[in-house]
Amino acid sequence: MRQLLRLFIPLWLALCLLGCGKPKPSSYPPTMVEAARLSEHEAARALPLLEALADSLDRLDEEGRVYYDLLRLRVNDKLNVRATNDTLIRRITAFYEAYGDPDKLMLAYYYRGRVCADLNDALQALHFYRKAAEVSEGKRQPLLLSKIYSQMGEILEYQNMYEEAIPVYRKSYEYTLLSGDSVTLSMPIRDIAGVYREEGQKDSALVYYEWAAEIAERTNHRIYLGILEEMGNLYMEFGEYDKAFKVLTRSLADPFERDRTPTYYLLGKWYMLTGNLDSAFYYTKKSNTKEVFYKEIDVYRNLVTIERGRGHYREALDYWDEFLKCDDSIQIADNSEEILRMKSLYDYNLRERENQRLALANERKQAAIYRLFAITAILLLFLGGGLIHYLNRKRNWQRQTRKLEAEKRRIYRESEERIKDNLQKIAELEALSRDGARSASAGERNLIALSQDILSAENKHIELNLERRRVLEEQLITSAIYAKFHDGREPIDESDWMALRQELDRVYDLTNRLYALNPTLSEMELRICCLIKIRVKVTDMAILLHRSKQAVSNARNRLYSKLSGRPGNPTKLDDLIRDL
Description:
Distance between the termini: 60 Å
Strand content: under 5%
Number of helices: 26
Structural class: mainly alpha
Number of strands: 0
Radius of gyration: 44 Å
Largest sheet: none
């Protein structure tokens, strides 16, 4: 008892110290609280508040200063200020991993993923988005979870992993719905539609676009107009030009202040496809902002087609030159992106190997600490288990021995040896009847005669059973299934094994008798018993069972022990099975 107290008292004290040392929530100044409130939807207003706090950070505790840095990152991200390195966010995530605030750790992991995305490290970004989702456990901050899954879906879609992106976008929709944010509810549905379109499943894409448009029309007009543009493009791919024109003109006529460049481009495409080349030129030319060459190349491609159709071949050649310049720029950009993607994968693998090495080293240290305590427990369990196993095995052997003796007695009762013994008893009773014919009473003589009749009747019953079994055995030996197993000319399948067992059960009731000895026999062991019963050679057994000859012999050794409860050899097993 004293030894136990010496062991547990220090452990209890350590737990108490850990509980007392848990950090208390920081108290933030009102300006910082207001900046945190504004940082999600009004980042431009939150930025001056955070800048005003920059000179008084020394008044905050460590957690307050780290949280301030996290808010600055959040505001910069909202204002589309790209991160140039991950030094700050590394420090923030390391702090909150040790601090014990899951809500802020979740936020830190999310913005570490955003920083990794800014640095073109898609795999690492995906890794930290998943860590953020794991911290939430599906219960914390549903609005942030919806953004996490939206970002994950975007990365997967960018990597052309469309099947993986769709369920992630669906989770984004579920958590947006759970958060009650109706303003962005249509966005994950629109994203799912975009993935289906990329996959070529245009019917599914249209269903999701219509669903997203129905929600966005009530909740977010800007998103609604963008969805109309995407639907117009999809209708054109279907060849439904009337529907396409209807949604595009609705988007164009809407007074909502926004960039109408995509609508101009799609209307130009619509007029080009429907043969109105002058209007096509007007809208396509109006959509050429020369801001993004990925979009610009489509504009020049269409302008080449339009001008060629209008007979303006010199202008068409000029636009063709511009198209080629854009194509070269895209090739360079694609190559650069591919290099960045490969570098990102290489860096990610390096980090994973280093993390695995550190984790392995940590596991070894922990194993060394626990090994001393574990060895004693393992030894005690091993000794106790060994004793229990020995006692159980001994009981099993005794039980198997009793079963086998009972089976031997049953076999004896149905054997020719029993007939001989009964005949000897009958002869002894006849001799007793002759010797005591004068002195024996009438009752005694009747009893002797009755015993003789019983023994004779028993012999007759045994003889009839033996004759019946002989007939059945002849039928078995002359059966097609018996010949198939002995000839070895045709392949043996499951139906053949079943047919053989049915024949042996009909003649010997073999399966029930084997299970009576040991109900844990495997299918392979039952098949070995069947082959022994029809006297198949060991070499042929190995072929039929697709095992080596040695493997079959070893199995027969184990099988005898399972059936008899004592060690034996294949010969003893053969005798046991053939006597059944």
